[in-house]
């Protein structure tokens, strides 16, 4: 298929108060980001987490950075060690940090210092039900979300679960940043459609950068 945007510069689309889509922002570094995912998951492999309610998530997850998102019987938590290996999560690759910083600056969150990066892998049919990202103690920090590989439909609502949803196709290289007024807006990913992407095959990957610990800034 002819891709009319193959050579286009990234562009921005406002999403909600405090939220913006940086279209194709990660495109030029996509291969390096995917190599980073391989590096991290060679040490801390993808796994299908079981929710506190006993449900096995369809999305496979891994983490890098000082803290990683995990579950136990009591609920969700950010932990310094991977429960699967007992070791600290692998460090965030330099290309992850650089891309995240540049995206945060472009989205007007120049002080964002992520200490956690959740890596999601979607196979056909995998989805993420509508939820809020609310396990982080300092909600002044935004979420920076990077999409790679197959496209998926992102739903973005409001503060209430039944607020109207925008449905946005996120494509390879797109970055979404949400914070301030929209930091706790409900969002999700609709079931992945089958397809083949030249760089990721039958998968979509997503990186979400978070500040999961307390702020080190005064
Ligand atoms: C998330 O909601 O944390 C990830 C969303 C996505 O995969 O784009
Ligand atoms: Fe989320």
From TrEMBL:
One of its GO terms (biological process) is oxidative RNA demethylation. GO terms for cellular component: cytoplasm. SUPFAM superfamilies: Clavaminate synthase-like. 2-oxoglutarate binds at residues 120-122, 204-210. Binds 1 Fe(2+) ion per subunit. Substrate binds at residues 69, 76-78, 135, 161. It catalyses: a methylated nucleobase within DNA + 2-oxoglutarate + O2 = a nucleobase within DNA + formaldehyde + succinate + CO2. Gene3D superfamilies: Alpha-ketoglutarate-dependent dioxygenase AlkB-like. Residues 113-213 form the Fe2OG dioxygenase domain. Its cofactor is Fe(2+). It comes from the Bacteria. Keywords: Dioxygenase, DNA damage, DNA repair, Iron, Metal-binding, Oxidoreductase. Its EC number is 1.14.11.33. Fe cation binds at residues 131, 133, 187. Belongs to the alkB family. NCBIfam families: PRK15401.1 (NF011930). Dioxygenase that repairs alkylated DNA and RNA containing 3-methylcytosine or 1-methyladenine by oxidative demethylation. Has highest activity towards 3-methylcytosine. Has lower activity towards alkylated DNA containing ethenoadenine, and no detectable activity towards 1-methylguanine or 3-methylthymine. Accepts double-stranded and single-stranded substrates. Requires molecular oxygen, alpha-ketoglutarate and iron. Provides extensive resistance to alkylating agents such as MMS and DMS (SN2 agents), but not to MMNG and MNU (SN1 agents). This is Alpha-ketoglutarate-dependent dioxygenase AlkB. It comes from Enterobacter dykesii. The lineage of its organism: Bacteria, Pseudomonadati, Pseudomonadota, Gammaproteobacteria, Enterobacterales.
């Amino acid at each position: 298929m002819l891709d009319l945007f193959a050579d286009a510069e990234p562009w921005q689309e406002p999403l909600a108060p405090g939220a913006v889509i940086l279209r194709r922002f990660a495109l030029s570094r996509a291969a390096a980001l995917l190599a980073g995912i391989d590096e991290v998951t060679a040490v801390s492999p993808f796994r299908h987490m079981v929710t506190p309610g006993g449900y096995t998530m369809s999305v496979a997850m891994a983490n890098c950075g000082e803290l990683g998102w995990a579950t136990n019987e009591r609920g969700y938590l950010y932990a310094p060690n991977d429960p699967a290996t007992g070791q600290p999560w692998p460090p965030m690759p330099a290309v992850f940090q650089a891309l995240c910083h540049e995206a945060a600056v472009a989205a007007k969150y120049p002080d964002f210092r992520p200490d956690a990066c959740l890596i999601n892998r979607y196979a056909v049919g995998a989805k993420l039900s509508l939820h809020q990202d609310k396990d982080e103690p300092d909600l002044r920090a935004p979420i920076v979300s990077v999409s790679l590989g197959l496209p998926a439909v992102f739903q973005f609502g409001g503060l209430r679960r039944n607020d109207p949803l925008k449905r946005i196709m996120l494509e390879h290289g797109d970055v979404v940043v949400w914070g301030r007024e929209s930091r706790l807006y409900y969002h999700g990913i609709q079931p992945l459609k089958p397809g083949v992407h030249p760089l990721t095959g039958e998968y979509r990957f997503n990186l979400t950068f978070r500040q999961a610990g307390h702020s080190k800034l005064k």
